[in-house]
Amino acid sequence: MDVTVPLEGKVALVTGSTSGIGLAIARALSSNGADVAINGLGSPEQIDEVVKRLASDSERRVVHFSHDLSAIAEAGGLVEAATAEFGRVDILVNNAGVQHIASVDEFPDEQWHRLIAINLTAAFATTRAVWPQMKDRGWGRIINTASTLAFTAETRKSGYVATKHGILGLTREIALEGAQLGITCNAVCPAWVLTPLVAKQVEEKAAELQYSFEEAARNYFVTDIPTRRFVETDEIAASVLFLCSEAARSITGIALPVDGGSLIV
Q: Which of 183, 207, 248, 264 has minimal CB crowding within 10 Å?
């Protein structure tokens, strides 16, 4: 059995990959031999820079797709477009995610539907779309970015918590359906990661309390992480890379915490 991780000849599709966790995942997969389809937000100039940097660093093909994952048809269409461009999709990383913070009685309908659509429905749609080709080839890797909030809860995050619990259920179901097909499906569950999304939350808390960014982070965000630091995006990317390898072919249906020990507290 080949237990190395290089992905020569594979094509990976990573959603939400123009920044943060998704970009780190795309970088790890491309630097280990995969051609990569990326998807995410940004100005044309920012996206062009991301594509050029990934391609230059890895010497692999990198193409950006601008599909809107809030629409189920476009989420499925993203897989079709990536397949048309690259000829196949072997690895699917459902990483795209959005957040809205409000108490349950003040949570807007449109935000609830937006979180469900992007955080959960899009992962179902891309998985459904990629399934036939993975099944035909007898090989596939599907990794969903969940959260420690797939196990626990946090006030004022009903939409996010609900979708991450849903992602964990979807992961387990897909793992069962793919178990005899050569398709694995797993979830990675980070604690606080200093992505642009999280940095915005830290900045808002710092402004509210008139704290510095560092004070807000230390006193309100990493207090329940035994390592007392944010998880790094490259650490999550390394976990995804391992789950894509042949060494992980018997690992399916798991929810892998990358959390600095926060779930043991």
A: 264
